[in-house]
Amino acid sequence: QVQLVESGGGSVQAGGSLRLSCEASGYTYCMAWFRQAPGKEREGVASIHTASGSTFYADSVKGRATISQDYAKKMTFLQMSSLTSEDSAMYYCAADVLMRGSCSRGPGGYKYWGQGTQVTVSS
C-alpha cells in the first residue's frame, strides 16, 4: 500500500507557472501526473520511471512541463509554465509499484492515487 499526497495547487494567472509536489509513502517504479477537468476524461500529463528517469509528456504540455523526482525523499514534482485556462483541472498524482520497463500512459496502469490538488488558471 502506497499513499500519495499532493500539494502545490491553487490559483494562478494565465501565463504564470506552478510546481506541484507529490510525496509517496513508499518506493515506486512509475510516478505520473494526471488531470481531470469537469466533464472531461482523466488525461495523462506526464510520467517518470523512477529507476531510469525516463519521462513522458502529453502533447498538450510538451515544452511547458517538467516532471522530476527526488528519489531518496520519494517525492515527485511537476513544474508547469505558460499556463492557460486549458490547464485548469484537478491534478492527481499516481503510482505504479510493479516493475516495468516503461510507464503506462493511461490511468489504468496506476494502482495508487492521491486525493488531487486543484489548479485554476485565470485570465
Provide structural commentary.
The protein is mainly β and 123 residues long. It has no helices and eleven strands. It has strands spanning 4-7, 10-13, 18-24, 30-36, 43-49, 55-57, 65-70, 75-80, 89-96, 112-113, 117-122. The strands form two sheets. Strands 2, 4, 5, 6, 9, 10 and 11 form a seven-stranded mixed sheet that branches. The chain has a four-stranded antiparallel sheet with strand order 1-3-8-7, with no helix packed on it. The termini are far apart. The mean pLDDT is 96.
Count of β-strands: 11
Distance between the termini: 40 Å
Q: Which range best describes the helical content: under 10%, 10-25%, 25-40%, 40-55%, 55-70% or over 70%?
A: under 10%
Task: Give the percentage of residues in beta strands.
Answer: over 45%
Biggest sheet descriptor = 7 strands, mixed
Shape call: globular
Low-confidence blocks of residues: none
Mean pLDDT: 96
Helix/strand order, N-terminal first: EEEEEEEEEEE
Give the helix tally.
Answer: 0
Task: Find the structural class using helix and strand composition.
Answer: mainly beta
Cα-atom Rg, whole angstroms? 13 Å
List keywords for this structure.
123 residues, mainly beta, seven-stranded mixed beta sheet, four-stranded antiparallel beta sheet, 11 strands, 49% strand, globular
